[in-house]
Specification:
The chain has 2 domains: about 5-210, Spore Coat Polysaccharide Biosynthesis Protein SpsA, Chain A; about 210-244. The chain has a 7-stranded mixed β-sheet with strand order 3-2-1-4-7-5-8, sandwiched between helices. The chain starts with 5 loop residues before the first strand and ends with a helix. It has helices spanning about 20-30, 55-60, 70-80, 100-110, 130-145, 155-160, 170-185, 205-210, 215-225, 230-240, and strands at about 5-10, 40-45, 65, 85-90, 115-120, 120-125, 150-155, 190-195, 200. Helix content is about 45%, strand content about 15%. Helix 1 (about 20-30) links the parallel strand 1 and strand 2.
Length: about 240
């Protein structure tokens, strides 16, 4: 069996609707990868789905890793553990990736001064509300020096930072990137924000809750953060884990 070079890990919970379009974009990117299609393995980490997510993944040739712990960090870690690639990449199941994604990752990590990176994202549709939220996120992204989209690093470095923190229900991706960046800083390496291969982020939360809901809802979330941890946990579970 050929040893894959890149493992793309897709955490998924009840994603039968969105997974096919992601996998179509992954197939296009694999076809463009200069090391060949077989050099990329695709792992769908099924986090206890009750729909046909696993069947959709298998029908398209993906390895399905079943992860029982209903925490997205555990799903990411479980997918990574089941994979074999020396380079690990992660993307959300409702995203779509750029056709040059794997070539861009390859070029980035060919530089020994790079610890890892991310492709960044654009949105699948735009409106005033979505655009404003996007603009408000940019200063934080630039200040922290990280990004989102397809996140990637070498397996050895993923293991050294301990993967994703399974104690966190949300923001596990931010912590992982900061941990990876911190490891790179100790070695004199940089985190790279790739240009020209942005993933497309889903707007399904905006489609369902309204284009302004991030802005109108943030005050309630802030209140819960400071005054009602139980309410905050309930909101996290409802908004991020059960809203399918």
């Amino acid at each position: 069996m050929t040893q894959p070079r890149i493992a793309l890990v897709i955490p998924a919970y009840n994603e039968e609707k969105y997974l096919p379009r992601l996998l179509a974009s992954v197939a296009a990117a694999r076809a463009r990868y200069r090391h060949g299609i077989d050099a990329v393995e695709v792992v769908v980490a099924d986090n206890g789905s009750s729909d046909s997510t696993a069947e959709v993944a298998r029908s398209r040739g993906c390895l399905v890793a079943s992860v029982a712990k209903r925490v997205i960090a555990a799903s990411r870690n479980g997918g990574a553990q089941a994979s074999r690639g020396e380079i690990l990449a992660f993307v959300d199941a409702d995203s779509q990736i750029h056709p040059e994604t794997f070539n861009a990752i390859e070029a980035s990590l060919a530089d020994s001064r790079v610890i890892g990176g991310a492709t960044g994202v654009t949105m699948e549709r735009w409106s005033m509300g979505i655009g404003l939220v996007y603009l408000l996120m940019l200063p934080m992204v630039k200040t922290m020096g990280v990004d989102t989209g397809v996140v990637f690093c070498r397996r050895a470095d993923f293991e050294e930072v301990g993967g994703y923190d399974e104690k966190l229900l949300i923001a596990e991706d931010v912590k992982f990137l900061l941990d990876l960046k911190r490891l790179g800083r100790r070695r004199g390496l940089r985190f790279e924000r790739i240009r020209g291969a942005k993933a497309i982020a889903s707007t399904r939360k905006f489609d369902r809750h309204g284009d302004w809901h991030y802005l109108t809802g943030m005050f309630g979330v802030a209140w819960a953060f400071f005054f009602s941890r139980r309410r905050l946990d309930r909101w996290i579970r409802t908004y991020w884990y059960e809203d399918r």
